[in-house]
Amino acid sequence: MYWDPENECMNREDLEQLQLERLEATLNRVYLNVPFYHRKFKELDIDPESIRALADIRKLPFTTKNDLRDNYPYGLFAVPLREVVRIHASSGTTGMSTVVGYTKNDIKTWSNLVARVLTAGGVTKDDVVQIAFGYSLFTGGFGLHYGAERIGASVIPISSGNTARQIKIMQDFKTTALVCTPSYALLIADTIHEMGININSLSLKYGLFGAEPWSEKMRQEIQDKLKIIATDNYGLSEVMGPGVAGECMERNGLHINEDHFLVEIIDPKTLEPMPTGMVGELVITTLTKEAFPVIRFRTRDLTRLITEPCPCGRKTLRMQRVMGRTDDMLIIRGVNVFPLQIENVLMSIEGTEPHYQIVVDRKGALDDVTVMVEVSESIFFDEMKKQHELIETIKKRLSSELNISVNVKLVEKKSLERTDGKAKRVIDNRKI
Ligand code: DLL
């Protein structure tokens, strides 16, 4: 099922023509209205009129999160504040680092794009959608809310937190679709189990999860525990929020809303384009945003593009699930390690729980990694010998996956922090 078949199934040639027209319009607008882009284009001697093909985009400068910080709060807005009807922000390590705005028209576009993602994930106007993302400056709650309302679904704006109440509402209001982060979905699933509630007594059918990386194994686990079809959806505040890309029922890559976002995959070191299908950093240019257009925004997210046609009939390119962020990548004794690699290994081992944390220290000149992993109660209270065997198995599997040796510590179920938002997987204590 499609929300907007004309645009989601448009043939490549028409799509590229549309993208080019929209790109030209966007470039003219930022050149005229945003001093930052005007200056940058001038410095590189770029006249927006000279961008005549999609491939010309490579001549344009990148935009980074730092540029957004430097222009805090409204410096990159392309319309006067009186035309802005909504403001969101994402908090970085240095507090409120990026502020984004939406015109009335942007909100309309946003709602429609989220409606596409929700429709692809199974939601229709007959669904009761529980939005357990935070309603705040974070784009998750409001973004998904507007999309679900646009479809005509019955929306429960419960926001995140208070898991017992989430479950009561789910029972009483007969929720059919749950919308939150995958880690919160897992916490809800485990709590349902602990409360002794029979999952078959709930009405849940679909889960639409995003805002943080998760593995295929984690999807299986959530699907099994909640008895739902779980799809992944992706977005980021700087570009719009949720609604950039989402999976269809095939659950094999996220369809990118390419008529609104032009994507590139670059090598984060050389900044050159990666060959088609290779993993690199996703770079996004918005094609229709009015209040907050971004040109070649470096997302820091690592993925690859899937060009093979999808059996669902959508013609848009898909992106593979995000592997991690370039800034989440740990360099351990010179070896690149992503938290998701560790998650994949842990989830394939019997007895471990899908809750883990990676602690990195520096001992002398050497990096020292400890993977803390929760294990089922029976193992935790089991004889030492069995615990040692499990530790050895995990160590062996991790070292063959990562090519480095790590310490493993088994911890009791529920001893690691749970979250109703994005999970914190890494604690890096190295002062470097
Ligand atoms: O997380 C927007 C969003 C809300 C997307 C709800 C989906 C659902 P930010 O807080 O700005 O915005 O964080 C954006 O989160 O650059 C990725 O690193 C990560 N991220 C978002 N979706 C996914 C996903 C929202 N499906 C940052 N898989 C992005 C992996 C994701 N990482």
What does it look like?
- The chain has 432 residues and is α/β, with parallel strands linked by helices.
- It folds into two domains: 1-326, ANL, N-terminal domain (Rossmann fold), CATH 3.40.50.12780; 330-428, GMP Synthetase, Chain A, domain 3.
- Helices cover 32% and strands 27% of the residues.
- The chain is built from twelve helices and 21 strands.
- Strands 4-3-5-6-7-8-9-14-13 form a nine-stranded mixed sheet. A four-stranded antiparallel sheet has the order 10-11-12-15.
- A hairpin with a 4-residue loop joins strand 7 (229-236) and strand 8.
- Helix 2 packs across helix 3 (35-43), helix 5 (104-120) crosses helix 6 (139-151) and helix 10 crosses helix 12 (384-402).
- The chain is globular, with a radius of gyration of 22 Å.
- Residues 90, 133, 138-140, 210-213, 232-237, 241-242, 299, 301, 322, 325 line the site of 5'-O-[hydroxy(phenylacetyl)phosphoryl]adenosine (DLL).
